[in-house]
Design brief:
There is one protein chain. This protein has about 325 residues and is of the alpha/beta class. It has one domain: Aldolase class I (TIM Barrel). Helix 8 runs parallel beside helix 9 and helix 9 crosses helix 11. The longest helix has 20 residues. The protein binds flavin mononucleotide. Flavin mononucleotide binds next to strand 4, strand 5 and strand 12.
């Protein structure tokens, strides 16, 4: 059975890739994922805010040293003595590279143009096989028009592409008004792939103490339908590689993503909830299905239910909307 696939120009043994999560913060879980069959691993993100905080601290310490007396300043800590979050990230990247045989994809998170993208070069020097730009942005500034929001994605990407020769993927949320158009622009700006979609952390309200509560809700299989539709719409209409992320919990979820056109399926919540064994179960479930349906390779089945190949292309657009709404019957046990 040939499960091999290409993602961001990397030749992978299978389409199962643990996505960005705390599981890459330590070597043991990362090794367990490799042993369970992960084809690559995406690291947790290095955040623009963390880089900027490091830089502010370094500038502050340098200033203190400049203005203090020569004798006193020797007692002040040198900023090199504080390992910055950036340095810790680069160190973890080097450790993962040394410990694993699979490709390691680093991840930079930010939303503004600026100095933080130059850290892509340090990530490349530390040995990353590819870089994911995780653009996590809430358009809460109501004076900013959508074209400016999209342009910033392109600007960040263009600046990063100019820094490094690493393949670059862009991880997006679903909240763009013309996503297909944006993906074609991302491709034209030099990205090797897109990962769709990041799940936004959604603040909740605690009605007991009238406060905003911070709870991280993990996904379920139902959440996979959003990325699935977009895999189906994009397959065959863009040439960059496609990662499906969000709601892939079982072999069946992964298969649907592949049938719709994903090159790889990212796995996160299901691994956090079920451990590394879930990766082997998904792998084995996909192989079992392929055997039963007489597919010899993932390449043969990929995109066979994309919009371009689907027996019902309208299902991925508005076509079945009216039909779905009008055919819905509330349960008879509840409504007479
Ligand atoms: C605890 C946790 C931490 C995450 N950290 C990151 C991160 O640092 N960078 C990133 O791009 N995505 C991050 N994600 C998002 C996941 O990589 C993934 O895209 C998202 O959870 C949807 O996939 P899932 O339904 O399989 O969980 C995180 C998700 C979780 C649950």
């Amino acid at each position: 059975m040939d499960l091999s696939t290409q993602y961001l120009g990397l030749a992978l043994k299978s389409p199962f890739v643990p996505s960005s999560s705390p599981l890459s913060k330590r070597l043991d879980p990362a090794r367990q994922l490799e042993d369970a069959g992960a084809a690559a691993i995406v690291m947790y993100s290095l955040f623009e805010e963390a880089i900027e905080a490091d830089e502010r601290l370094a500038a502050q310490l340098a200033l203190q040293q400049d203005i203090g007396s020569a004798e006193a300043s020797s007692y002040l800590p040198m900023h090199q003595e504080f390992p910055s979050q950036r340095d810790e990230y680069l160190e973890q990247l080097r450790r993962l590279k040394a410990a694993l045989d699979i490709p390691v994809i680093a991840s930079l998170n930010g939303t503004t143009r600026g100095g933080w993208v130059r850290h892509a070069r340090a990530i490349e020097a530390a040995g990353a096989d590819a870089l994911e730009l995780n653009i996590y942005y809430i358009a809460a500034d109501f004076t900013e028009p959508p074209a400016a929001v999209e342009q910033r994605v392109i600007d960040i990407l263009t600046e990063t592409v100019a820094q490094v020769s690493l393949p670059i993927g862009v991880k997006l949320s679903p909240y763009y008004s013309a996503l297909g158009h944006l993906v074609t622009r991302i491709e034209a700006a030099g990205a090797a792939g897109v990962a769709l979609f990041n799940r936004f952390y959604q603040p909740d309200i605690d009605t007991g103490n009238l406060d905003v509560s911070q709870v991280m809700h993990l996904s379920g299989s139902k959440d996979a339908l959003l990325a699935m539709r977009w895999m189906a719409l994009l397959r065959g209409r863009v040439n960059l590689s496609l990662a499906a992320t969000g709601g892939v919990h079982t072999a069946e979820d992964a298969l649907k993503m592949l049938l719709c056109g994903a090159d790889v399926t990212y796995l996160c919540s299901t691994l956090l909830l079920n451990g590394p064994g879930q990766l082997s179960r998904i792998h084995d479930g996909v192989v079992d299905w392929m055997e039963r349906h007489e597919y010899a390779s993932v390449g043969d089945l990929r995109g066979s239910l994309s919009q371009q190949h689907s027996p019902d292309p309208a299902a991925f657009e508005r076509g079945n909307y009216l039909q779905m709404l009008s055919n819905y019957e509330p349960p008879k046990s509840v409504w007479r």
